Amino acid sequence: MKQKVVVYKKVPEDVLMFLSEKFEVIYFKNLEDRKDSNFIQELHTAHGLLGSSLKIDKELLDHAPNLKIVSNISVGYDNLDIEELNKRGIQATNTPGVLVDTTADTIFGLLLATARRMPELDFYVKSGKWNGTKNEDLFGVDVHHKVLGIIGMGSIGKAIAKRAHFGFDMDILYHNRSRNEQVEKEFNAAYCELDELLKTSDFVCLMTPHTPETDKMIGEREFHLMKDTAIFINGSRGKNVDEAALIYALQNQQILAAGLDVYEIEPINKDNPLLKLPNVVALPHIGSATKETREKMARLAAKNLAEGLAGKVPLNLIK
Ligand SMILES: NC(=O)C1=CN([C@@H]2O[C@H](COP(=O)(O)OP(=O)(O)OC[C@H]3O[C@@H](n4cnc5c(N)ncnc54)[C@H](O)[C@@H]3O)[C@@H](O)[C@H]2O)C=CC1
Ligand SMILES: O=C(O)C(=O)CO
């Protein structure tokens, strides 16, 4: 009898076909609620789970006694309780690599859009306000030849550094769990302690995973250390930032502006003060979301799942 796989995110047709050849596939194209009774019902007999963002913790796992693998269609896996999965001998996988360039493009684009106030200016033109000289109140700030501080010099951090160094002649500072000689050589990047990076950078870009250690790692103290001309970019996870402190810093000119792809709670509430601030450029957690890359991620996740259920060690097993 075929093993059973529950897919809880929309995936391309070829991924469904690939899975259906090997497994019995139950497909929830757009699962809105993890308490959905049909989903819970299917979990009881599921061997594999494929999707993203869903919180997978003890409460959910108690409904899935036969589960062998959880395959996340994302690189971040802060939605998974890894300790609980380990305890139950359930494998977990993610999709690193395939989304690096796409995410770096988005985050660097966000940095440019924030510095040059592109969404505001787009609105200015489209709303018919452009009818004379453009005054200083519309000007942005330069990106090229400025100092970019990257916190979390991993795969995506490096790809951002590459764009900044080769494309924009920026000076790169970085803070990471460990030094990386390759990025120091390739992008002339200088390692520094977090406080030094915050004090010195014109742009601070956060690219760490969300872990107990990085939870709210940028808060009141850190915004205080930044230049009042600094632009803060968060492409990592919203929970890495104390959002109330970010709002305060933006409202009180402690920093100049912020470009955000991620938020403490997603989707962000439309009444969140961040969305009322002209010095915030807000994207809907879209870093990796191009058609091509999302398809690659889904294919890689399906491959990981198939390897796990075949008794092999999946390529992207989370250790
Ligand atoms: N906005 C979006 O759509 C996307 C967001 N992400 C987020 O970006 C994160 C990073 O992705 P990758 O670069 O692929 O991961 P990675 O694992 O290659 O890099 C993460 C880096 O953060 C560093 N780090 C971890 N804890 C740290 C700490 N306490 N202080 C300083 N550095 C620390 C690590 O040493 C590592 O170099 C993901 O975990 C995910 O949360 C990833 C993809 C898309
Ligand atoms: O992969 C991730 O971690 C994302 O945030 C979405 O691609």
Question: What would your notes on this structure say?
Answer:
With 319 residues, this protein is an alpha/beta fold. The chain folds into 2 domains: 4-97 and 292-309, 3-Layer(aba) Sandwich (Rossmann fold), CATH 3.40.50; 100-282, 3-Layer(aba) Sandwich (Rossmann fold). It has helices spanning 13-22, 37-43, 58-61, 82-87, 100-115, 118-126, 155-168, 181-186, 194-200, 220-225, 243-251, 291-309; strands at residues 4-7, 24-27, 48-51, 69-72, 91-93, 147-151, 171-175, 190-191, 203-206, 231-234, 257-260, 280-282. The strands form 2 sheets. The protein has a 7-stranded parallel beta sheet, with helices on both faces. Strands 2-1-3-4-5 form a 5-stranded parallel beta sheet, with helices on both faces. The two termini are 30 Å apart. Bound molecules: 1,4-dihydronicotinamide adenine dinucleotide and 3-hydroxypyruvic acid.
